[in-house]
Design brief:
Length: 195
């Protein structure tokens, strides 16, 4: 088990006007994780809200962070947090919305590019590496000809809202599994075909 803390970052945009947007699903997952760890978010000198705690007794310490910047500027707070806590990107998990995955699906990815996601693009630019773990929360593609940027800045639709608590819970389970059981075990558990 990892002895250093995990830095878990939930991407989104700040402020109540964005809170229920598809783009903010990463921050919704962080809220669920903070609840499980009985931790509350506090302002931090790194331009982020941070909650610290353990989900599992004797398990790894989690540093849960919501950047206070807009999505496209997530890199600054993330690189500051890594420096502040003296952590390597290998201890970083970024939870974010993903257009290329159907709604109600969660996938784990280790390393790679940004895939057109502006939050990931800025983190890779600021940290100088893409070698960190991503928990990709599927929001699906926009219907018809709707612009993708417009789509992610809208709230979840009615049917999605009903399934959203389950999706957020599963994404939190994925983060918990990565930090407690390890990346390979989490991938095997959550990427296996379901019976």
């Amino acid at each position: 088990m990892q002895t250093t803390p995990w830095l878990v970052v939930g991407l989104g945009n700040p402020g109540p006007g964005y809170a229920a947007n598809r783009h903010n699903v990463g921050q919704m997952v962080l809220g669920e994780l903070a609840g499980r760890a009985s931790a509350s978010f506090k302002s931090h000198k790194t331009a982020a809200l941070v909650a610290e705690g353990r989900i599992v007794a004797g398990g790894p310490r989690l540093l849960l962070a919501k950047p206070a910047s807009f999505m496209n500027l997530s890199g600054g707070p993330v690189s500051q947090l890594l420096r502040f806590y003296s952590l390597e990107p290998s201890s970083l998990i970024v939870v974010h919305d993903e257009l290329d995955i159907p709604f109600d699906t969660v996938r784990i990815k280790a390393g790679g590019g940004h895939g057109g996601h502006n939050g990931l693009r800025d983190i890779i630019k600021a940290t100088g590496t893409g070698e960190f773990i991503r928990v990709r929360v599927g929001v699906g593609r926009p219907p018809g000809r709707q612009d993708a940027a417009d789509y992610v800045l809208r709230d979840f639709a009615g049917a999605e809202r009903q399934a959203l608590p389950s999706l957020i819970g599963e994404a939190a389970d994925v983060v918990e599994s990565i930090t407690v059981d390890g990346l390979a075990a989490a991938q095997q558990r959550f990427h296996s075909p379901r019976a």
